[in-house]
């Protein structure tokens, strides 16, 4: 495959991906959904490596498990969390060597003790890394994030540590799950779907949305390059002329 030309001077600083299509990939290949999720984990590596190698991308945010995903079968949910622990054990040393910092965002308190242990280990190990930020949205929903940020701000006002007149967009952003993530420049969704699916509603305000027809387990570096080429072909006016 001929890779598109990428201008490394105009890379999106903050990229987000909705990793969609594991179930359809499994059905297509005549295997169980667990195998689809297992195959999708390999695509995470491809996305992280591609962003790191390009050099100018500051953050990559991946939608791993939504607040709505609890509605799936118990077996599938357990599989997803088992794969999370497996991925951390296999990949975290390489991620650390690449100077990538890992953060998780969402309502993490609802996760199992094992998941929290692995999550905290990965964040603690990489907390001083500076080359790139890898953010995993886990038990995440954008409406929940906005609700939780609002409650946190209200609690500070009630405690007298924050004045109402000091609440502005910057203040609100500081109360989001991962305030170190700036506004997203490029949001990719695989499998050809066109929905945002309750993902980063605040951070996506001016993002360029690029749907890709590829199912997530088939996602490779060239697909990220294609999305970036599409991003670079657009004119970002932010409401101007």
List the total number of helices: 7
Q: In terms of per-residue confidence, which ranges show pLDDT below 50 for 5 or more consecutive residues? A: none
Write down the overall geometry. globular
How many structural domains are formed by the residues?
A: 1
Mean pLDDT equals 94
The share of residues in extended strands comes to 5-15%
Task: Report the biggest beta sheet as strand number plus sense, adding barrel if it closes.
Answer: 6 strands, parallel
CATH class term: Alpha Beta
Helix fraction by DSSP (H/I, runs of at least 4): 40-55%
Main sheet: strand order: 3-4-2-1-5-6
Secondary-structure element order, N to C: EHHEHEHEHHEEH
Number of beta-strand segments: 6
Q: Can you say what the CATH homologous superfamily is?
A: Decaprenyl diphosphate synthase-like
The radius of gyration computed from the alpha-carbon positions, rounded to a whole number of angstroms, is 18 Å
The structural class is alpha/beta
Distance, first to last CA: 36 Å
Which architecture would the CATH scheme give at its second level? Answer: 3-Layer(aba) Sandwich
Instruction: Briefly note the CATH topology name.
Output: Undecaprenyl pyrophosphate synthetase
């Amino acid at each position: 495959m001929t890779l598109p030309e990428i201008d490394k001077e105009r890379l999106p600083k903050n990229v987000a991906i909705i990793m969609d299509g594991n179930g359809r990939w499994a059905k297509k290949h005549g295997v169980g959904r667990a195998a689809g999720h297992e195959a999708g984990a390999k695509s995470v590596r491809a996305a992280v490596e591609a962003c790191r190698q390009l050099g100018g991308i500051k953050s990559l945010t991946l939608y791993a498990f939504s607040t709505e995903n609890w509605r799936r079968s118990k077996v599938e949910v357990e599989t997803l969390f088992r794969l999370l622990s497996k991925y951390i054990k296999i990949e975290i040393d390489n991620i650390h060597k690449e100077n990538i910092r890992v953060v998780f965002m969402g309502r993490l308190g609802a996760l199992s003790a094992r998941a929290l242990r692995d999550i905290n280990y990965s964040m603690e190990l990489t907390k001083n890394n500076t080359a790139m930020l890898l953010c995993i949205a886990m038990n995440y929903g954008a409406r929940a994030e906005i609700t939780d940020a609002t409650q946190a701000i209200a609690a500070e006002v009630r405690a007298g540590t924050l004045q109402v007149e000091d609440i502005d967009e910057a203040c609100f952003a500081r109360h989001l799950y991962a305030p170190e993530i700036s506004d997203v420049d490029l949001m990719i969704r695989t499998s050809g779907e066109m929905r945002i699916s309750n993902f980063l509603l605040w951070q996506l305000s001016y993002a360029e949305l690029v749907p890709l027809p590829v199912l997530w387990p088939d996602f490779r570096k060239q697909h990220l390059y294609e999305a970036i080429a599409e991003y670079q072909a657009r004119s970002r006016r932010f409401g101007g002329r």
